[in-house]
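Aim 2 progress update. The chain analyzed this quarter is reproduced below.
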Amino acid sequence: MGCKKVIKVKRLYFEDGWDLFFESLGVFPEELSSKVENIALIVADECEGFPLAIVRTATSMKGETKAGEWRHMLECLENLGNGQYEMDKWMADHLIRRFVYESIDERKKLRLQYNEGRKMLHKLKGHSMLDKFLRVLAIGIVEETSKIMRKAYEQLTEVPSDDQWEEDLQKVFLTGNNIQTIPDGTCPKCSQLSTLLLDGNVKLGYIADEFFNNMPALKILDLSRTRIKCLPESVSKLECLIALLLSGCVELSYIPSLRKLKRLISLDLSFTAITKAPGGLESLVNLRCLNLLTEDKLEMSDLLLSKLINLECLKVGWAQCLTDATGQSTQDLEKFKVIVAYFRDIGYFNAFVKFPPFRDAIRSYCLTLKDSSYNRDPSDGLFDKDYIINHSKKKVVIEDIFLANKNVRLPPDMKELDISDCHGLEYLCCSSGLSFPSFQHVQTLRLWRLWGLTDLVSPNADFLHQSTLFSHLADLEIGGCNSMKTLMPFKLLALLQNLSTISVNSCEKMEEIVGEDHSVMEVTHGDALMALLHDNFSHPTIELPMLTSLKLDNMPQLDVVYRGIMLCPSLQTFSAIQCERLSLPRMNNGTELLIGLTSDGCYWEK
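Predicted structure tokens:
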């Protein structure tokens, strides 16, 4: 970058980082609710003391007072990966999405246009322009400011009067205000208006039917997270509209006919009160992304999906309708590239997973099997992530399901698996239940509150399967599994040569991380060194070349990590908090291992 001198910036202590965070946020702690303040505290901690990360994160959250928005930020930070701060990537996703909406080409595939957005972003990075564009994104402006009304987060209680809506306006940003109603008679004349953002006006309960009558060029309309009950009739006349975003309008129960919106590409009806597919939905032949995540079962024709001939991304809740539709026509699934779907019934889930087009055509998916209702808050968890941008996402979530003697069929190319709050699961992998081949490509495994889980792999499992089991596993996170005494046996851990992070906490009966059963496994890594070490110690040395982080927390019965030596040349962080009985591990990371002691436990950081 032409720098004459590189100055290394040290991480800030937490107290200093918290002060910088509030200073950049522009508020005092007492101005936030206790709930938001607690989340903000965790958000600041996720910045890991890096000043640039703290400032950029806090600045991006200016004006945000809702807990949902702060949870959204926390979720983004928690998924950035392995302690490497990638705030640019998180904000860049939003920039790319805006780029696609603003310059949409109806002849091109959606994925191709997102790739073009990424290329543009890469060029900006190369010319030191990314920060400028992120600032532009943060305040919601583009060039030609004279044609923009920018009144986002200004605590407005009323929509600007008609005389403030100049006819040559191109973009209007009213996000995050306190507007309660757009009264009858409000009908601004804006013949060139292409973008109107009213999202985040959580008190907005009524919009006059005639409000959109004189906005014939409108392309992007965002009414997400408002309290409207009915979408105005004038929306049905917006024939240039390409994106209609209504996510989180939890009281919205009526949408006028969409038959004339032939150019519509993205329709988001997630977390609304809609119970029937809107009229005219089958006519949207250019629709590429449809989000129908709702709590109640949505009534729609089995043939609807076959009529949406260009649909690439589908998000649907309680997806019996999806399974029924795919049972009638294999072509319905072959066109999809991205699917987010929820299932209550294991049978429907299995039928969908084994369907050939799903295995062969779907490029990105997140499938959830869950017995109870999912959270309606659109700012929580899975619903924050943009599955169009991340085409490599292949994830399965299993929650709140009784799994004893149940055979769940998992996708063979699955890369992420989350299982939580499930009873009846004694082994993650056994001769019945969750099948072995499904774990071969798993890179991230998270297991939470599986009260009956005793071991990851059944002792009766075929060892030939074990030799490839979890062979791609990089990140392992386990918590609240109170029947486990050993995380895994030596013979299994020795196979996990791609393992990068291990996090185990709140497993009350856990006594050891690595079990002593090593008789079956012949260690081949570093034969000469291993033989020498084996002569000197009663337990063979285990080598984990990729391990960078080992974190243990709140396990009162934990005595030992491993009784032999662990060779971890890439280790960066080791911590053991509230593990009172734990003996210090015998680990060799290529340098002298320094372990610090605190009142809660011990830690080590390279």
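Residues 149-257 form a domain with the Leucine-rich repeat, LRR (right-handed beta-alpha superhelix) fold (CATH 3.80.10.10). The two ends are 28 Å apart (CA to CA). These observations will guide the mutagenesis experiments scheduled for the next reporting period.
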